[in-house]
Design goal:
Four copies of one chain form a homotetramer. By secondary structure, chain A is an all-alpha fold. Chain A folds into two domains: 56 residues, Homeodomain-like (Arc Repressor Mutant, subunit A, Orthogonal Bundle), CATH 1.10.10; 124 residues, Tetracycline Repressor, domain 2, CATH 1.10.357.10. Chain A contains eleven helices and no strands. At the C-D interface, helix 6, helix 7, helix 8, helix 9 and helix 10 of C face helix 6, helix 7, helix 8, helix 9 and helix 10 of D. Chain A binds a DNA duplex through helix 1 and helix 3.
Chain lengths: 212, 212, 212, 212
DNA sequence: TATGAATGAGTCTTCATTCAT
DNA sequence: AATGAATGAAGACTCATTCAT
């Protein structure tokens, strides 16, 4: 594998970014295995060889693209949550709004979403980036919760769980629609569950003492 | 694409099954893209050309393998749950046992699990098989719940949710370990959540009436 | 690097040999680096892919070709020497005849000769094959000498030296002609030297006792 | 192919020499085909494009390097021989010393030696430079012999032969070691041969009159 | 002169599929 | 039905050289 260059001149830096952006776009839309370096070069308006000035191989383009964009594709939820000013006193309404907005944002990422999940599960390095981004997201949510006045046992795990639940719901609603399901009811159930998770529920408190 | 034969003689049927089994095994362990037809043929103890007597193409082997084995790989949970005799009166303990057993079973499927998730997200036909199997699983769980004496609102959705949550937890515990998390606490939280989902919780009942 | 097949059917065995023969011929005539697998395939009247059924890569074709042909290209001398019936009693005349015949045979290998020497010096595996063939040749010459009635000190080294000297002369006369040299005289000098090497020369016997 | 500049300013001359030196060093150590112009430029501390200010192509760097350094790599023997003051009266001891010193010097050139031999045999222009340098060396040795008081028939050819034999021995001892050979005996045989070549040997004188 | 970015033809290699027997 | 040989299109990557600044 040849050496790669660090772009120095302005135009070259732009070229490198262009390769990441266009390459990642193609990969997300058409699938990593269906995209070849020639098409990336063409789409980025450069020659094939130029790709290899800045990247060891096609894979590296993918990884750079993931590091640049994965957060906003997989966890747009964070940014949306950050804008909720009165989360603690208004949890169910706020969280429902957040979920619905997240679903909307994720609608644009349908193809990318599937392709990236596919890569996460077939490529160890991609998997690691996912884990890192997920951890980052968890920490951010935890911070938001703390800033919003929460101070819970196992709060970080709960933040993690929140993220996973939201993503699950978004997947269900955006990509996995089973026609016979009543998704509105499901959404309310989910919010009820999250209430149990984030608020002291006397019933649940009792259950806590049950050893299982 | 040549025509394929429907095997009639016993030996031919056995050959076809052998191709499915060995091919699917190789795909699960090494990845669909890394396995070529020559190695499948070799592993199945037949000649390369003979594969195409029974299958239009490599892809068909995958699909047949999925139809045959996907259920037991992705939803071993069902079989385990079926054996719990006293689910309703003993939910938290029973469900914890079920989860732990499921985790154990899934440990053996680590490679297959990732590869199949990868294919689910990159291959529409695989995706459809997943959806079918998931629906089947949901219906079975719903039946089990009914037989166990449950009669809940949105029971099917809840069954669906139960499956998703279990799978999420198994993934977390088997494949996605973040070192800093306390997985024991997380497991208990999950069970608490499932209690909220399957039992009337006064606190939650109140919340139900909140419009969000 | 993919797996290779052992040809089983007659035609396939012929195909493999054809690849070795035609590939080696092209390499010898045009140079290893100038020959590509496509041209080998074309010259052997097969498809590019078929080359890789029997060889891991281009390099393996070279090595197989060397093992098959290097001996007769580099050491045709042996076969020629074998035919001399009265070597011991007629050494100078016989050895001159052998040298001249060897030169004639080697004239046909001019291109091959240079290319192979080039590869010997740039490719460790080729180098090793050269060494093996050279040792083989040395042993054969040693046997011929013994059969011809020689029984000398360090006879094997002398055989080795004989080969090297012959090759040197052939190179000089066939490929390295400096116009200003009198090659006929040189040839006679060489034969004189070989006499010194293979016969008891009183003068030299004295020198033997000199410690240097 | 663009035109090249003849460097006039001191710095430019230094740059050109740097390219030759560093380029030739890389080629000798890593092989002509494995070294690319980018790495030569980098190693010479200039930019890629700048190489082409001084050289038409990569090949020209090689040729310039050869013209500059080939003599001292291939024929260090000359310089060593030049220092022997009493060659004629002390031939066997002197020549043995010369050979051993030459072997020592050549030990440092192992990689270069092979690479250059490889190029000699694959590149006609390189071949020509080799021939020129060899002729130069022959003439120098001839001069040394004359100055040392020799006045032999075919003295130039003998000088040429001397060089070739020395190189052969050095190769054998430095690079081609066959474990089963007794190299000390071989060295003595070689010196004995050279005695036959450079001194009137009565036995051999007789043989001279044999017509073969 | 010098820089480093850009070019694009060329090469090896893979593999699903088809063919001949 | 079965074998294993053959096909050939396609893709990743290299690198000497030229270009724009």
């Amino acid at each position: 594998m040849g050496n790669v260059r660090q772009p120095i001149k302005k135009k070259a830096i732009a070229t490198k970014e262009m390769i990441i952006d266009k390459g990642f776009e193609l990969i997300c839309n058409n699938g990593y295995h269906s995209v070849n370096t020639a098409s990336i070069a063409k789409y980025a308006n450069i020659s094939t060889g130029n790709v290899y000035q800045y990247f060891h191989d096609k894979h590296e383009i993918l990884l750079d693209g993931l590091n640049k964009y994965l957060g906003s594709i997989m966890f747009p939820f964070i940014e949306i949550l950050e804008k909720e000013s009165d989360l603690k006193n208004n949890f169910p309404v706020a969280i429902k709004r957040v979920i619905l907005k997240t679903i909307e944002v994720k609608k644009d990422y349908k193809k990318a979403y599937h392709e990236l999940l596919s890569l996460e599960n077939s490529d160890l390095e991609v998997f690691k980036i996912f884990k890192n981004k997920e951890l980052e997201a968890t920490n951010k949510v935890n911070d938001i919760l703390t800033k919003s006045g929460y101070n819970l046992d196992n709060q970080k795990q709960k933040a993690h769980f929140l993220i996973n639940i939201i993503n699950l719901v978004c997947e269900e609603l955006n990509y996995h629609q089973h026609e016979e399901f009543n998704y509105d009811a499901m959404l309310n159930e989910v919010i009820r569950l999250l209430m149990c998770l984030f608020y002291n529920c006397p019933n649940c408190r009792i259950q806590k003492n049950i050893t299982f």
